[in-house]
Design brief:
Blueprint lengths: L6 H71 L5 H28 L5 H26 L3 H24 L5 H22 L12 H36 L1 H14 L2 H18 L5 H28 L1 H8 L6 H26 L3 H24 L7 H18 L29
Helix pairs in contact: 1-2, 1-3, 1-4, 1-6, 1-7, 1-8, 2-3, 2-6, 3-5, 4-5, 6-7, 6-12, 7-11, 8-9, 8-11, 9-11, 11-12, 11-13, 12-13
Length: 433
């Protein structure tokens, strides 16, 4: 007995596979650019310079996560073709990008952590980073993942080229690194605005009602997305206070080395979010099975990368970061990556199904537990290298609650699904198997 596969079904499966491959590739390019930026900073500014940059860059990642959750997730799940909702998306993007830049500048300068010039460039980099990320999210929402690769390559190559040029001219400093980052993101933003689909390239007049509707969904997602980078930023600052920037730089060096494990995790997770949003009306049991399959695949990949990474430490460690890597810190960051692989698909599915408030509360509890654990560790005089293990344990606990409690019900979100985007192939009907 033979099974006949229709040409249409086959084409749709190929479209889904290409979408996942594009999502992974986009994440690889973005993370590789971030990794190259931090490696260059470590090599050219030393471990103390890396420690200062890690704190500032961590804040940029944090505020970007907030905007990406608030606006980026909203434009993916809500009907962005509704003029009222689109107006709200535009207004919040402008408000958050401007406000983040001003707050970043003020916080860095007033605290004395950075000079006036460094703080100004830090604020510009934060605003540019947020706007570039929203262009990426718009391309992601329309399943144009391979165009995101172009955007990320433009931003990364511009930043790295400027840094290398300044290094050769012996003019590289923390302020210069932040300036290179800001310019690179501006180039990526310009390229993204040029290649986004014409059907998505328009503005509408601002309306107050649209802002309220976006906030009702996006606020929970923004708060949730801010938790993990928020805990990481708290950890860096706590280590700076308790042990100094050199200790922070050493911990950050280990995180940078383990960062490639996040590449495929982030790419597949972004694809799953868009896929779950398109298939939200399917039975919860079907979607939960897809999430389980995604977790198994991500954990297997994480384990493979971890084994390769640990074996290659003697060779790749000095090459990438140029400083000795603590084995405990390395193990902790790899474990933290594994927990992200194990919990992210469940949180994504629960949010798409309308349980974003429940997901946020659970993630808030495990994030507070992680922060308190790190604070207790440092207050009791423990070594900072154990901090990643504490983060990993708290993250795993929260993810298990989402999987076996939040996703055990058939709750269906009440927000109206937005219509399928005009992309090649109706990916919303493709099964992930």
């Amino acid at each position: 007995m033979t099974t006949t596969v229709s040409p249409t079904s086959f084409r749709l499966k190929i479209a889904a596979s290409r979408g996942a491959a594009g999502a992974v590739s986009a994440q690889v390019i973005q993370a590789a650019g971030s990794l190259a930026l931090q490696v260059l900073t470590a090599r050219l500014l030393g471990v103390a310079g890396l420690g200062r940059f890690a704190v500032l860059f961590g804040v940029i990642v944090l505020v970007t996560a907030v905007t990406s959750g608030f606006v980026g997730d909203s434009l993916t799940v809500l009907d962005r073709r509704n003029r009222s909702l689109r107006s709200g998306l535009e207004a919040w993007a402008l408000i958050l990008a401007t406000g983040a830049g001003l707050l970043a500048f003020g916080a860095a300068w007033i605290s004395g952590f950075a000079t006036a010039a460094e703080s100004a460039l830090f604020g510009l980099a934060a605003s540019a980073f947020l706007l570039e990320d929203l262009i990426r999210r718009l391309l992601m929402a329309t399943f144009q993942f391979w165009r995101i690769v172009i955007v990320d390559l433009s931003a990364a190559l511009t930043t790295i080229a400027l840094m290398v040029g300044l290094a050769l001219a012996r003019s590289l400093s923390l302020a210069a690194v932040l300036g290179c980052l800001a310019l690179g993101q501006c180039v990526g933003l310009a390229v993204g605005m040029r290649i986004v689909s014409r059907s998505e390239r328009y503005l509408v007049p601002l309306r107050l009602g649209g802002m309220r509707k976006v906030a009702s969904f996006g606020a929970w997602r923004a708060a949730q997305q801010a938790l993990r980078p928020g805990v990481l930023t708290f950890t860096r600052v706590a280590v700076v206070v308790a042990a100094g920037v050199v200790a922070t730089g050493g911990l950050e060096a280990a995180r940078i080395y383990a960062a490639p494990t996040m590449l495929f995790i982030g790419g597949i997770s972004s694809f799953l979010f868009a896929w779950f949003a398109r298939n939200e009306l399917k039975p919860l049991g079907v979607l939960r099975l897809r999430a389980d399959q995604g977790v198994v695949a991500l954990l297997g990949l994480t384990l493979l990368i971890t084994i390769i990474g640990l074996i290659a430490v003697p060779v790749l460690g000095p090459m990438l970061v140029g400083v000795p890597l603590n084995p405990v810190a390395l193990a902790g960051w790899f474990a933290f990556a594994a927990t992200i692989a194990a919990v992210t698909p469940y949180g994504t599915l629960a949010s798409v199904r309308g349980r974003q408030a429940a997901v946020f509360l659970i993630r808030l509890c495990d994030s507070v537990a992680a922060a308190l654990g790190v604070a207790a560790l440092l207050w009791l005089g423990g070594a900072p290298v154990f901090a990643p293990l504490i983060l990993a344990g708290a993250s795993l606990a929260g993810g298990l609650v989402i999987r076996f409690v939040v996703l055990s019900t058939g709750y269906r979100r009440q927000l109206a699904p937005h219509p399928a985007s005009p992309v090649k192939g109706d990916i919303s009907r493709v099964r992930i198997s």
